[in-house]
Design goal:
2 domains; alpha/beta; six-stranded parallel sheet; 9 helices; Rossmann fold
Amino acid sequence: MKKAIFFDLDGTLIDSERYYLEGAYVWMKEQGFTGTVEDLYGTVGVTFDESYRLMQSYLPHLSVEDVRRINEDYFLNREPLRYKKLLFPETDRVLKELAGEYALCICSNDPKSELDHFLSECGYEDLFTHVLSCEDIKNAKPDPEIFLKARDLLGLKSEECLIVEDSFCGIAAGKASGIYTTARRSPFPCDQSGADRILETLDELTEVLKEYYHE
């Protein structure tokens, strides 16, 4: 069995965090939000439920369910996400270079439908060995369940795996799993101090893998 790399999606393979922040800011302003986009930084890297609760705290005339409905309508119908356009410049090349040598997995808090959409739009249906969503586990990050499940599905030991994350919750989940955890540097205020290694871009991953696996 190949050694493995477990990737988060948002903020790691695609530059989606900015897209979600800017979109949420637009519809929230329409609903009476008077703050700044920086006030929404707390939605980065957390679960959808946590994001909706934070948004609702700024829009007390709406319920959390109202916030969920408006947010989903905005991103599904008004400004649908274009995954291919949001890939970081090096993502496609790095993934295809690594796929021949490592088992690649996606481990994301996103729902399965979003991950399927990402794979289809980018032509990655056969690139990843396993794709795990929030629907495949009971406990979302920062619980380590999703990484441990990916490891066990591959029949590997923790030291035969490496994680690429970006958010505090993702890093915490990676460290709790006992698997070496790297983090792509976030452009937003985010505590990444728990990561074993910070990556400026995915281009640095090749060298990190050589060092980690002593290749």
